[in-house]
# Entry
Amino acid sequence: MAPHKIVLRFDSTTSDQPIIYHLVKDYDLMVNIVKAQINPHLEGTMVLDLDGEKYEEGIDYLRRQGITVHPLNQEVVRNNDRCTSCGACTCHCPAGALYMERPSMQVHFNGDKCVVCLQCLKVCPVRAMEVRI
Amino acid sequence: MGIERTYAEINARIKSGKAVVLTAEEVIGKVREQGLTKTAAEVDVVTTGTFGPMCSSGVFLNFGHSAPRMRMTRVWLNNVPAYTGVAAVDAYLGATEIPEDDPANSDFPGEFRYGGGHVIEDLVSGKRVKLKALSYGTDCYPRKEIETSITLDEINEAILFNPRNGYQNYNCAVNTSDKTIYTYMGTLKPRLGNAHYSTSGQLSPLMKDPNFATIGIGTRIFLGGGIGYVVWNGTQHFPGWLKDSEGNIVGSAGGTLAVLGDLKQMKPQWLRGTSFRGYGATLTVGLGIPIPILNEEILRFAALSDEELHAPIVDYSNNYPNRVGGNLGLVSYAQLKSGKITIDGKEVPTAPLSSYPKAREIAHTLKDWIQKGDFLLTEPVQLLPGPDAGLTGKTLEIRS
Ligand code: SF4
Ligand code: SF4
# Structure
């Protein structure tokens, strides 16, 4: 079976826990960290390839730790005509995929960094961020 | 004494294609380079711009008469109610109005995906909008209900009339509580997780004429991509000075403008339906004002930079909602634009809600219009009250 591609989100109380260690040691899972990011507020996101017999148990363990887990089967795109480069999303993007270039104050979107946490869809005032499934 | 110019002289230079026009951003460098006196002698007009959410926006619409005629008592546009206490087939649609069946904040934080501001954007985009109206029926207006659709071209008038726009300065909003809050200043993370501000700083119209020495009733402006006018002071017009703890002036306070223009001339990229999660719907408006450099004093203010202009940091978790005065300090627009500020020793990331690149585009567009001779300056019929008028906000007391 192919590894599962999943996105994890941590809050500041869970981002310093040795969760990868436990996934490997206690659940015998194969872990490939695709992307990982932690912001100044110690909130983190991580994209993983995860595989092994005890996959479901591993996921249960993650959820019990208060970590949100969702499958990475979506892509977030920006509607460049709608985006006004206001910047309201930039403090909310945990992966730095939406960032402001200075001094022009133009907001850029780097899809390679995006961890599909969907925060920008909620905070963008003009709904410029969209999900593609 | 330095130069003195009149509106007539500036307009004559615009007509002959000789006017020197700089944006409020460009003029800063020019003054730094060659000083106030020389720049004032050279520059005729400084253009400003801002593109941010402006809740007090709306549009007066006249739909034309159906057969039989109808006196519209209640009106909905794409399900969003409009105010009809006007004349028979006129209505005013406010940007913050939401559909009657919108769950609003009952499912907190609400999404507010569509409201009056979105209807205005749809109209200005040329989209067909559903019109529904009810009436009690009269001898002269017998029809009691109608369901049809309209486009901006098909109706008589669409007058954008925004009674409070162009805020001179605004708060930098933060959240000191332990939970995320959803405000008109965007989503604010707990424990000073982020700071949002909403002006274009050194490009912002009223910050560049803080004394209201040139802006008044009849000032011709860029509004929503078309030409509009300042028609009055805005509501909550409290111009004044922002002072630091030693009493030094570090920026202007809260003047506002009432503006009006023909929606049919405007463009959707400058009037954008906007939603704030957990708060409501509104309209993002593009506004640009030319400042005639009548003398050196006017230039001195028009050339203020982000380093010299400040905003108060206000806690939106407790102080703002409970109307507790005071602030957590003052911060310059240069600091805000750098991406982080320090509050109580903590580094806090900052982000704007108003678009600086779009503000710059507006200032450049206005500059182009003036340079091409398409846009002449108007001398105000009457200037608006400035800081000397001593206007301050009244509070609403709760009486039995
Ligand atoms: S979904 Fe949006 S907020 Fe989340 S990482 Fe991607 S761009 Fe950033
Ligand atoms: S919040 Fe939306 S409009 Fe503003 S910069 Fe981000 S994506 Fe663009």
User: Anything to note?
Assistant: The longest strand of chain A covers residues 30-38. Helices of chain A lie at 19-27, 55-64, 119-123. The pocket of iron/sulfur cluster (ligand 1) is lined by residues A 76, 92-95, 97-98, 114-120, 129 (CB under 6 Å). The CA atoms of residues 99 and 108 of chain A lie 6 Å apart.
